[in-house]
Amino acid sequence: MSLVSACRMTGSFTAAAGELGMTQAAVSYQVRLLEERLGMPLFRREKRRVVLTEAMADALMATTGAGLIPVVITFGAGASLFIVAVKNHAPAWVLFAA
After folding, report:
1. From the first residue on, what is the mean pLDDT of each consecutive set of 10 residues in the chain (98 residues)?
2. How far apart are CA 35 and CA 30, in angstroms?
3. With contact defined as beta carbons under 8 Å apart, do 97 and 59 qualify?
4. CB atoms < 10 A from the CB of 17, how many?
């Protein structure tokens, strides 16, 4: 399960951390790094929960509705890699440098 998916499904960075075997601080930090790199918020922080922003929800719907699985991998040196996998074709990866 990806970081964004865990946060979306649980509605909480703390609960997502439990699902992923991470600390809440690590999840919060990773989300903040992704938001900084993408230049937009991924989640609205509401009282006691987080909700995907409309833009992020639309992006996820567009990719999953088209049969694509988006994955973002970030590296410590400030580089990130955006990967899109085609459902039912696991060996077929489309790579985009970000």
Report:
1. 83 93 92 84 90 79 62 58 55 46
2. 9
3. no
4. 21
Alpha-carbon torsion (31, 53, 4, 17), positive or negative: positive
* This prediction's pTM: 0.63
Q: How far is residue 41's CA from residue 33's CA, in Å, rounded to a whole number?
A: 10
Q: In what order do the strands lie in the sheet with 93-97?
A: 68-74, 80-86, 93-97
Token reading at 26: 């690590």
- Residue located via tokens 């903040």: 32
Which three-class secondary structure string do you get for the chain? CCHHHHHHHHCCHHHHHHHHCCCHHHHHHHHHHHHHHHCCCCEEEECCEEEECHHHHHHHHHHHHCCEEEEEEECCCCCEEEEEEECCCCCCEEEEEC
Q: In Å, how far from its chain's centre is CA 7?
A: 8
